[in-house]
Amino acid sequence: MWLNTRVIKFVNDYEYRKYAKYLGLPAFHQIRSIAPWCNPHVNYSRNFRLDSLEKVWNLLDRLSSPLSSKQYHLLFVDASKHNIPENHPKLKLLGYDLLDIASKSPL
Prior knowledge:
alpha+beta; 3-stranded antiparallel sheet; two-stranded antiparallel sheet; globular; Transposase
């Protein structure tokens, strides 16, 4: 699993608007994804590779808090290796990665 901090893209961003329209989701106000071109890393962030939730909590204690409504921490987890419940008190499930092995989305 890995953790980083990303910028939230909004409908007033041209690239976001174009991408959302391409996906057929023009009504979405914002997007939070694992794609760095769509939600770039905050300038101090990088991919922190971690192997347990305990290490995630320790790192979150040391990282700066995301700016409200502008940034978010993204924890990417391989569901085949880590069992994290969808209703975890410290995590919010944003969705599942829908790319196949060839990096093609079914959307």
